[in-house]
């Protein structure tokens, strides 16, 4: 009888632990949903954190892959609008964007430290994602450029969600090994998509990319 009672007690404890764990996960999911449902479409971009506990990086997509219009998020309204140059829509007179282009949430390239005064740029290699998409990514590398005397670094990343991944790589070395021409294609695109002269300093791996991201995180 004692053995039966002990087994029954252990089963009940496991059931209680399982139910408690489920409730914690459920309540966390609900709190996240409430947070975003309470935010307006603009406010949700102001509450994003840069890094997760797993060192994945939060990105906001401005320009979908395959687009030739220069779309940017308005810093006042947070709406996604086509950039203007000389009173006209800015259209890339070259091949369209080879990936989903945007910025890393919660970062700022400080002009006093050679930055361009914007959030850190990112190119996410994946199928086309709409403007305004928020997703977690894995940084693979960083393309280091100088544009008009300012640092204009581009983080190269892939979605952390395997269902969204179109390339097989977790490091810059793997990316170069599996797709040897891709690095050259991306670099050539950034050198030719605009009429302004751009200088290439080189590439950095995933460690340097993550270090660059951490350096530009805005401390509130």
Structure characterization notes:
The chain is α+β, with helices and mostly antiparallel strands. It folds into 2 domains: 1-38; 43-215, Alpha-Beta Complex (Inorganic Pyrophosphatase), CATH 3.90.80. It is 30% helix and 25% strand. The chain has helices at 2-38, 172-178, 182-192, 206-215, and strands at residues 57-63, 71-73, 80-82, 84-85, 88-89, 100-104, 121-124, 134-147, 150-151, 154-159, 198-204. A 5-stranded mixed β-barrel has the order 1-6-7-10-8.
Structure summarized in a few sentences:
With 220 residues, the protein is α+β, with helices and mostly antiparallel strands. Helices cover 30% and strands 25% of the residues.
| Proportion of strand residues | 25-35%
> Number of domains in the coordinates?
2
Helix and strand sequence: HEEEEEEEEEEHHEH
Give the oligomer, counting copies of the same chain as homo and different chains as hetero: single chain
Radius of gyration: 22 Å
Topology:
Layout: H1 2-38, E1 57-63, E2 71-73, E3 80-82, E4 84-85, E5 88-89, E6 100-104, E7 121-124, E8 134-147, E9 150-151, E10 154-159, H2 172-178, H3 182-192, E11 198-204, H4 206-215
Parallel strand pairs: 7-10
Antiparallel strand pairs: 1-6, 1-8, 2-3, 4-5, 6-7, 8-9, 8-10, 8-11
């Amino acid at each position: 009888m004692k053995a039966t009672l002990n087994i029954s007690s252990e089963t009940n404890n496991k059931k209680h632990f399982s139910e408690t764990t489920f409730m914690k996960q459920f309540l966390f999911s609900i709190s996240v949903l409430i947070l975003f449902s309470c935010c307006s479409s603009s406010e949700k971009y102001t509450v994003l954190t840069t890094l997760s506990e797993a060192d994945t990086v939060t990105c906001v997509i401005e320009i979908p892959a395959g687009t030739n219009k220069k779309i940017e998020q308005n810093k006042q309204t947070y709406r996604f609008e086509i950039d203007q140059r000389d009173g006209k829509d800015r259209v890339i007179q070259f091949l369209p964007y080879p990936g989903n282009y945007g910025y890393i949430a919660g970062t700022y390239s400080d002009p006093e430290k050679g930055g361009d005064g914007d959030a850190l740029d990112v190119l996410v290699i994946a199928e086309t994602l709409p403007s305004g998409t928020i997703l977690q990514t894995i940084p693979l590398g960083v393309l280091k450029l100088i544009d008009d005397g300012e640092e204009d670094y581009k983080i190269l990343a892939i979605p952390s969600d395997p269902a969204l991944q179109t390339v097989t790589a977790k490091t810059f070395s793997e990316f170069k090994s599996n797709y040897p021409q891709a690095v050259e294609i991306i670099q050539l695109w950034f050198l030719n998509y605009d009429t302004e002269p751009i200088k290439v300093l080189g590439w950095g791996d995933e460690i340097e990319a993550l270090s660059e991201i951490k350096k530009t995180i805005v401390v509130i």
